[in-house]
Amino acid sequence: MTIGKIAKKTALNVQTIRFYERAGLLEAAERTPSGYRQFEENTVERIEFIRKAQKIGYSLEEIKELLSLSVSRENPCDTVRLMTEVKIAEVNEKMRDLRELKSRLDRLVGQCEAGNTEGKCPILENLT
Length: 128
Fold this sequence. Notes:
By secondary structure, the protein is mainly α. The chain is about 65% helix and about 5% strand. The chain has a domain of about 55 residues. The longest helix has about 40 residues.
């Protein structure tokens, strides 16, 4: 399958597919005598795997590991579960950070709304 056909089937641009190939997320494509890449039929499924993993927060390095585990002969479930638990901990930490940030921003907006700004913007004052 040519890179153009894969791009069409996956709704990705050709540069993204080339990037995935260079990053080792896709197997290197065979080349025709005229130099065109010929990808295996399972490339579309592999790209869908990559996209789904990205949507739930995995980095490209983590996806590379997940891909290698997905073709492993051994049961990778424990490793994948551990990776996912780590991802959940990262998400929880980001959520705490975002709640703290929202709280700080709410306080600054509250200071503006209170009107005791003495001609100064509390938000700008906080940034300096």
